[in-house]
Amino acid sequence: MSGNRYGHGPGMDSDRRLRVLIVQEAMGGCGRHVADLVTGLDPSRFAVTVLYGTSRMDAYYRSRMPELRRHARMIPCDDLRRNIDPRHDLSALAAAVRTIRHVRPDIVHCHSTKGGVIGRAAAWLCRVPVVLYTPHAYAFQSPQVRRWKRRLYTAAELVMARAATTCTFNVSEGERDIALARHLAAPDRLRVIVNGLADVPMPSRRQARQRAGLPQDVPIVGVVARLVDQKDPMTAARIARLLIARDPRVHVAFVGSGPLEGDVRGFCTACGIDANVHFLGDRSDADTLVAAFDVSLLCSLYEGLPYSLIESIRAGVPVAASDVTGSEEVVCEGRNGLLFPVGDEIAGAAAVERLLADPLPRERVRERFLTRFRVEDMLENIAAQYVARAGVAGRNAA
Prior knowledge:
This is Exopolysaccharide biosynthesis protein. Residues 28-196 form the Glycosyltransferase subfamily 4-like N-terminal domain. One of its GO terms (molecular function) is glycosyltransferase activity. The structure is a single chain. By secondary structure, this protein is of the alpha/beta class. It is 45% helix and 16% strand. The chain has helices spanning 29-40, 59-71, 86-103, 113-125, 147-163, 173-181, 205-212, 233-246, 261-271, 286-289, 307-314, 327-330, 345-357, 362-372, 375-397; strands at residues 18-24, 46-53, 72-77, 107-111, 130-134, 167-170, 190-192, 220-224, 251-255, 277-281, 295-298, 319-322, 337-340. The strands form two sheets. Strands 3-2-1-4-5-6-7 form a seven-stranded parallel sheet, sandwiched between helices. The protein has a six-stranded parallel sheet with strand order 10-9-8-11-12-13, sandwiched between helices. Strand 11 (295-298), helix 11 and strand 12 (319-322) form a beta-alpha-beta unit. The protein starts with 17 loop residues before the first strand and ends with a helix. The model is unreliable at 1-13 (pLDDT under 50).
């Protein structure tokens, strides 16, 4: 490895640990992924620093911050924000360059679209030899993004993928297929490493409902999602209206918050179903609170690989989900849930009703989690890539 790459001498700790700099803006599933990566990497092999955006921090990430600080150097960056803003973006880029020059990482691993653009641009400017990227769903996948923005996002991904990315880690086969269809990179520069979760003890349904303040002896449908456009919570609210109209015993619980919460609340009040709909807000225990539900519902317009569905099947709770990239890799029809067309509340309500009427066995629902989505596999694959990529870069520099 070049000793003067950042003008500071060698880029490796004296104990020979690989220095990894993670750059992230998004939270939600991205934040969960980064948190599990930081706390799961072997500290005897990797010295980790995280440059993270603060504008969209959620309850889950905040709850894990003390643990994250024990495992990594955590550097907040107020300018690392989702929206395009030249002033903040340039300040975030400058912060990333300063961090790279101080940390002298062997690897920069960027997460989410904005983190990917800022982090990869800074790594390119500083000539970091290994630059990795995990999109967690490409921004141009959103059907609600205006055409000019979709073209801008696609162009940015093309430039960064070809000029400043050693390898992209896609979180699902579908996400990789999208990258290939857009010619973002050659197949050998795309690798699928799916999200994973630890198999932790779950509360009983009664315990979880008591903890959340939910009624005990009624069917409950849970929606664990940020209340933002991507997750399409208004379709979930319309499904709730249909379900409750057909069976007044049904309750629906929204776990999460966001800019569309007022719209969803207003809709439920106007429809007269607000007594059966519960808004639990951001919960640091959302990943185990899912045990309270009979069915989990997710109406996303697009995804990378949604953690909320993995959390549901881990708990043995069947899912009804919109048929989008990522979700269709978690849901095995008839074994752990059902899929329905995006935005189709009638089909969505029918899927939920079928799962309520004919519950799937808990162990059958869990099978897909146990065979595909274990955090140990995710960590092993990423760590192996870090070591292999850094080794190749070291040999090339020599």
